[in-house]
């Protein structure tokens, strides 16, 4: 057309170019954002998603007494942990016994690590979904191996949890839900559950 008016084919070409450009930019930005998100401590590709329902801000604790109480079968030299009473988000159904969750990143003595590694079932690609504030204590380059629940409970000796008279969430029944360990830095990551009695 010579009169300056766009033909139907020209409009179609312009629309196709616009849509293609928009899709390309969207895919590029999405790829950049997912790359940027890796290892940020909010899931990414390294950790499973944190799934505990909580309405309070987490407090990372470092005292060893709470760890030693729950797992007397191993020797811990350093610990960072978060434990909170389990919330369901429903207040119409009272729980028969108050329950809590316990997430831990701990440095162990070599003999404790050796026992856990011996019971492991192989390396893991995704680490347990621990509370995000704990993730900075996990070595970034180490490969971790998984220890089955039954073996972890046995090695940690959770059936001999020390009894106490604590008045907050601490309890006297504890079980391992997930445990991974690395011999490169003697670090264990644990998700556990307990019942207050």
What's the SSE blueprint?
Elements: H1 8-37, H2 65-70, E1 76-85, E2 99-108, H3 110-118, E3 145-146, H4 149-156, E4 173-182, E5 187-195
Antiparallel strand pairs: 1-2, 2-5, 3-4, 4-5
Provide the helix percentage. 25-40%
Distance between the termini: 86 Å
- Measured by DSSP, the beta-strand proportion falls in 15-25%
Q: How many β-strands, per DSSP?
A: 5
Which stretches are poorly predicted, pLDDT < 50 over at least 5 residues?
32-43, 165-170
Order of helices and strands: HHEEHEHEE
Description of the molecule:
The chain is of the alpha+beta class and 197 residues long. The chain is built from four helices and five strands, in the order H-H-E-E-H-E-H-E-E. It has a five-stranded antiparallel beta sheet. It is elongated and about 85 Å long. It starts with 7 loop residues before the first helix and ends with a strand. Residues 32-43 and 165-170 have low confidence and may be disordered.
């Amino acid at each position: 057309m010579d009169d300056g008016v766009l033909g139907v084919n020209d409009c179609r070409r312009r629309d196709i170019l616009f849509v293609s450009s928009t899709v390309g930019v969207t895919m590029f930005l999405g790829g950049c954002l997912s790359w940027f998100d890796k290892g940020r401590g909010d899931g990414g590709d390294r950790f499973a998603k944190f799934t505990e329902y909580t309405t309070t801000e987490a407090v990372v604790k470092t005292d060893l007494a709470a760890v030693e109480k729950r797992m007397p079968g191993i020797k811990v030299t350093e610990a960072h942990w978060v434990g909170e009473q389990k919330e369901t988000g429903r207040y119409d159904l009272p729980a028969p016994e108050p329950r809590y969750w316990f997430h831990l990143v701990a440095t162990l003595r070599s003999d404790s690590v050796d026992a856990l590694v011996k019971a492991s079932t192989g390396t893991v690609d995704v680490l347990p979904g621990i509370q995000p504030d704990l993730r900075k204590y996990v070595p970034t380059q180490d490969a971790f191996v998984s220890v089955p629940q039954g073996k972890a409970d046995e090695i940690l000796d959770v059936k001999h949890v020390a009894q106490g008279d604590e008045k907050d969430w601490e309890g006297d029944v504890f079980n391992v839900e997930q445990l991974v360990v690395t011999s490169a830095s003697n670090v264990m990551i644990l998700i556990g559950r307990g019942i207050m009695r």
